[in-house]
Design brief:
Layout: H1 2-17, H2 19-31, H3 33-55, E1 57-62, E2 74-77, H4 83-89, E3 96-101, H5 108-116, E4 120-122, H6 127-142, E5 146-149, H7 171-176, E6 180-186, E7 202-208, H8 219-223, H9 225-244
Length: 245
C-alpha cells in the first residue's frame, strides 16, 4: 500500500501545485502555441516518469526506431492497465493527443492538462459523437499532432487475451494519411490491476512494431484492418512474453 500512497500523493500534489503552471502555459499559448505545446509535453512527461519511479516499474522498450520522427502517427495498442497511458506517453517524441473516454472530463485539473496536450474525449455510447471525435482526431494529425488510441474500447480484464479492435479507430490513419504504429504492451496489469488495491514492482515490455501504411495494404486487408493490426500486436506480445517471462 506504500507505493499506492506515494503515487496518489505525487499525482495530487502535481495537479494542485501545477495550477500556477497551467496559468503560465495558458499565457504562453496566447503568444506562442508551439512553445506551449512543447513545454506542456515536457512537464507531463516529467510527472509521468516520477509516477513510474514511485511505482517501482521497470520498462523495457523495444523497436523505438520504428517510430517516425518527421511525421505524426497513429499509435494503436492493447490495453490492460491505467498505467498503459502513463508508460507510453513518457516515450512519445512529439506532441501526441490520446483518445480517452468522456468520463475523464470529471477530473478538472487532469482534464486541463489533457486539453493542453490535445487529448480528445470519446462518448462510447453515442455513435454520432464518436464520429465527431474521430473527425477531430483526423484534423489533429493534419496539424502535425500524433494520436494514440486503444481500439479495444476499454481495459481488457483478462491477461493474455485481446478484445476485438474497433475498425473506426483506424480511419484516423486512413483519412489523416499517417502511419499506424502498433504497440505491444506486456505485463502492465502486474503493476496494479492484478492485485488491487496494491501497486507492486513489475517489469513491463513495450514494443513499437514496424509502421503500417494503410495505402500499401490490399483491399481485403483494409476491410479488416483492425484484425490485421491486432494480429501484429498479438504476435509481438506472445513473442515478448515468452522471451522475458
Amino acid at each position: 500500500m506504500i507505493r499506492l500512497f506515494l503515487v496518489a500523493t505525487f499525482l495530487i500534489l502535481f495537479l494542485v501545485l501545477s495550477i500556477p503552471v497551467m496559468f503560465v502555459e495558458w499565457i504562453i499559448g496566447k503568444f506562442n502555441r508551439d512553445l506551449k505545446d512543447r513545454s506542456s509535453l515536457a512537464i507531463v512527461q516529467w510527472a509521468f516518469r516520477g509516477i513510474m519511479r514511485l511505482a517501482g516499474t521497470k520498462i523495457i522498450i523495444l523497436g523505438e526506431e520504428n517510430v517516425p520522427k518527421d511525421t505524426p502517427v497513429l499509435y494503436v495498442g492493447n490495453h490492460r492497465s491505467y498505467f498503459d497511458v502513463v508508460m507510453t506517453y513518457m516515450r512519445v517524441p512529439r506532441l501526441t493527443g490520446y483518445i480517452a473516454k468522456k468520463e475523464m472530463l470529471r477530473w478538472p485539473l487532469l482534464r486541463t492538462w489533457m486539453f493542453y496536450l490535445h487529448c480528445l474525449f470519446l462518448d462510447r455510447d453515442n455513435v454520432k459523437e464518436g464520429l465527431k471525435t474521430i473527425l477531430a482526431a483526423i484534423d489533429k494529425t493534419k496539424q502535425g499532432i500524433s494520436i494514440c488510441i486503444f481500439p479495444e474500447g476499454t481495459r481488457n480484464r483478462v491477461n493474455d487475451t485481446f478484445l476485438p479492435f474497433h475498425e473506426g479507430s483506424f480511419k484516423v490513419a486512413e483519412k489523416g494519411n499517417v502511419p499506424i504504429i502498433p504497440m505491444s504492451i506486456v505485463n502492465s496489469a502486474a503493476i496494479f490491476e492484478d492485485h488491487l488495491p496494491r501497486i507492486k514492482k513489475a517489469t513491463v515490455v513495450i514494443e513499437y512494431c514496424p509502421p503500417v501504411y494503410v495505402k500499401e495494404l490490399d483491399k481485403e486487408t483494409r476491410k479488416n484492418i483492425g484484425g490485421y493490426v491486432s494480429g501484429i500486436i498479438q504476435e509481438h506480445y506472445f513473442k515478448n512474453k515468452k522471451e522475458y517471462y
